[in-house]
Design a protein that fits this description.
single chain, alpha/beta, Rossmann fold, globular
């Protein structure tokens, strides 16, 4: 295992990357909750990844994506998301760190108060991003993104006319380059565990646009890890989802010049904890927020981590995760959603 990790580290070191976050992030044992549930639970604290105190897992992807933008000599970065997108806010943060102009096209799924912005939308404003807040219309967020892209084409032509060079990042940073960030993250987690003389039976995390899952699966495949990755769907999903993730995962592997491949049957994606919709809180998610807060003093967000954590808790209660197992939960950040609109927050107090 150690030799395979060293080999992958050497290959990754040749890929352009900028330093944005503070890695490795802590791997924290949840002592009280582990005792309560009879399962050893370790929390990978990507909510503490930086650059700012509002960092999260997207910073890992942005280290590779921003390096690619600089390689292309871009001075403007355009990306997409919902109005409270963690990815969008972290992209703006990364742009400011590197002296680039951030442009956001955000789909307003919840009816944001533009005069009194909150959560990530407030941070986007403070950071001085160019923000285009778009209405979703009658479709979902992915359909809205397709309509928005036509507006983006016009904006890019205008920016080009001003002498700017634009670089586009997909929603969630979900492409092969961005997925390298979580390929590397899987190596980091394995190193964390090896230092403790441990291995994990399970790894649980939230999956949305698929880039995080793609990177994790690529890392697991390359070092031949036996840890079972369980991905809790919090948005998008559908029949073509696994195929998209596999394409991203294998695209990341190909960037490293490797021949290993991830297959659809390798993925374990649970879509039963999604609730009523994206950025719509779930009752189980709200209970998960309260449980972790009251037992460990750590906060989850209602959009991603709460729903994923609730899925893990349900699997523990049902015995899908056996007593005495060791499970890692990847905290991807996003607690700023606790300070967003009530529609996102839900009933947790």
């Amino acid at each position: 295992m150690n030799q395979r990790i060293r080999e992958m580290r050497e290959i990754l070191a040749k890929v352009p990357k900028v330093q944005l976050g503070f890695f490795p992030t802590p791997l924290q044992r949840l002592d009280r909750l582990s005792e309560k549930l009879g399962v050893e639970i370790l929390l990978k604290r990507d909510d503490l990844s930086g650059i700012s105190q509002f960092g999260g897992n997207k910073i890992r992807k942005l280290e590779y994506l921003m390096a690619d933008a600089l390689k292309e000599e871009a001075d403007t970065v355009i990306t997409y998301g919902a109005s409270q997108s963690n990815h969008a806010m972290q992209t703006v943060t990364a742009c400011r760190r590197l002296g680039l102009h951030p442009v956001l096209y955000l789909t307003d799924l919840i009816g944001s108060d533009e005069e009194n912005p909150s959560g990530n939308l407030l941070l986007d404003r403070i950071l001085g991003a160019e923000i285009h807040l778009e209405q979703p219309g009658t479709g979902d967020m992915m359909e809205a993104e397709e309509r928005i892209r036509e507006k983006v084409k016009v904006r890019i032509e205008t920016l080009k006319g001003e002498g700017r060079t634009c670089y586009e990042i997909p929603m969630g940073g979900a492409n092969a380059i961005g997925s390298l960030g979580f390929l590397e993250a899987y190596l980091e987690l394995t190193e964390d565990l090896l230092r403790k003389g441990q291995v994990a039976d399970y790894l649980y995390h939230a999956t949305g646009t698929g880039g995080t899952l793609a990177g994790l699966m690529a890392g697991k495949t390359l070092i031949q890890s036996k840890t079972e990755i369980v991905s809790i769907g919090v948005g998008i999903g559908g029949e073509e989802y696994k195929g998209k993730v596999v394409a991203l995962s294998n695209g990341a592997i190909e960037l490293l010049g490797r021949k290993e491949r991830v297959l659809e049957e390798d993925l374990s994606v649970m879509e039963t904890y999604y609730g009523e919709g994206y950025e719509v809180p779930s009752a189980k998610g709200s209970r998960a927020i309260r449980l972790l807060a009251e037992t460990e003093g750590i906060l989850l967000d209602p959009v991603y981590t709460a729903k994923a954590f609730s899925g893990m808790l349900d699997h523990i209660e049902k015995g899908i995760i056996e007593k005495g197992s060791r499970v890692v939960f990847w905290h991807t950040g996003g607690a700023t959603a606790l300070f967003a609109e009530k529609k996102i927050l839900g009933d947790i107090y």
